[in-house]
Amino acid sequence: MLNSAGEQLIFGPFELRSASGELLKDGLNLKLAPQPFRVLLMLVSRPGELVPREEIREALWSDGTTVEFDQSLNFCIRQIRAVLLDDARGPKYIETLSKRGYRFIAPVTRVGQHERDATGVEPAQQTTPVA
Length: 131
Prior knowledge:
The protein is an alpha+beta fold and 131 residues long. It has 3 helices and 9 strands; from the N terminus they run ββββαβααββββ.
């Protein structure tokens, strides 16, 4: 399931903003097409877990769209790795489990969606380290 609650996921120098579809590095917005962004969001939302290829297919191409899934997913992963400066042979972020799926291997910090109290003041930002 894709995360759309508006939280921010921080890993290394990167920040993934699920609600706005932005990926930032050291505060600068990076360009990542919508499908690679959604794949990255799936992976970062579940650090340390295997995200099966079939689950990614169902989440991104479940509307009956006819695509060459393997080529499309491989393209998405290549785009993500290029933006993150990650290398499949010595990954810092995305580990490939051949013919099974992918695993996000870097530590992730979740920053919850900000809510304002009755005075309109935001509560202190909370972070939760994740595996």
